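STRUCTURE:
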């Protein structure tokens, strides 16, 4: 959406490569050609900087972690404690090295739910948030924990929003890579994503802009 808007205004092509922050970081460090990187946590942005590949960065957005269920909520889940009910066979989470998976683990651990769910084999890991959400959409998991921003077009229902105090702050970090710093259009796009004209799009998608 913002990429298309920027392209129209600047007559510059923007190619978007989607994927988990951990996987994208691995690709960038391995030499994949990229100008910008939007990381779903500070951790992976720091790894790119540690590899000497970052020219500039900005903590751009934040979001919320939510508990979702298939439409109709067949297991009648209302709150995290309900995940221990016998009707819940699987709870879908993103991978352990993916930011969303780490946030979910932290929240469940603080609620004393991670250990029993793991012990009983109820945790189903997806490669990323999208795949975890897919388990819930298809009814392969009775519940899942994902970002609120990922559920708008999904066939799921949100039944609970986690208290942000239960996990590390969700921070999306925009990184201008050194390769992009040599590209005038990449620097312009980096600035555009921080500009006020992008705020309406962020709000519609459920993100909050960081100061």
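SEQUENCE:
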């Amino acid at each position: 959406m913002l990429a298309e808007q920027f392209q129209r205004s600047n007559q510059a092509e923007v190619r978007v490569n989607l994927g988990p922050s951990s996987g994208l970081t691995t690709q960038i460090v391995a030499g994949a050609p990229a100008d910008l990187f939007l990381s779903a946590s500070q951790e992976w942005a720091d790894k790119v900087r540690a590899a000497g590949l970052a020219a500039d960065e900005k903590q751009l957005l934040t979001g919320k972690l939510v508990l979702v269920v298939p439409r109709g909520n067949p297991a009648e889940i209302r709150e995290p404690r309900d995940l221990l009910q016998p009707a819940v066979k699987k709870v879908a989470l993103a991978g352990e090295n993916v930011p969303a998976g780490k946030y979910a683990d932290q929240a469940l651990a603080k609620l004393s739910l991670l250990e029993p769910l793991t012990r009983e084999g109820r945790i189903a890991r997806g490669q990323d948030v999208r795949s975890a959400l897919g388990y819930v959409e298809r009814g392969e998991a009775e519940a899942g924990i994902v970002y609120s921003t990922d559920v708008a077009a999904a066939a799921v229902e949100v039944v609970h929003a986690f208290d942000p105090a239960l996990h590390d702050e969700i921070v999306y970090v925009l990184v201008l890579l050194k390769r992009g710093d040599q590209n005038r259009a990449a620097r312009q796009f980096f600035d555009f994503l921080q500009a006020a004209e992008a705020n309406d799009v962020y709000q519609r998608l459920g993100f909050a802009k960081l100061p």
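REMARK: The chain has a mean pLDDT of 95.
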